[in-house]
Amino acid sequence: MKKAMNSRSKAHCIALITGCLALTFAGGCSQFGGADSQINQSGEAPKRVYSTRTAPPPAQKNNSYSYRDNTDTGAAHDASILADNYPNSYTVVRGDTLWDISARFLKDPWLWPEVWQVNEQIVNPHLIYPGDVITLIWVDGKPQLRLGEGTVRLSPRIRYEDLGQAIPTIDSDAIAAFLSKPTVLDRAYADSLPYILASSDGRLIMAERNSVYARGDLVAEQDYNIMHIGDPYIDPETNYIFGYEATNVGEGNVTRGGDPVTMYLKRTHREVLRGDRLMKVDPRDLDQTYYPHAAVAGLDGSIISVFDGVSYIGQYDIVVLNRGANVGLEDGSVIKIYQRGETIFDPYTKQTADVKKGGFIQSLKNLGGNKQQGSHVKLPDEPAGVAMVFRTYDSISYALVMQAEREIKEGDSIRSPR
Question: What is the dihedral of CA 234, 236, 239, 243, to 10 degrees?
Answer without folding.
Answer: -20
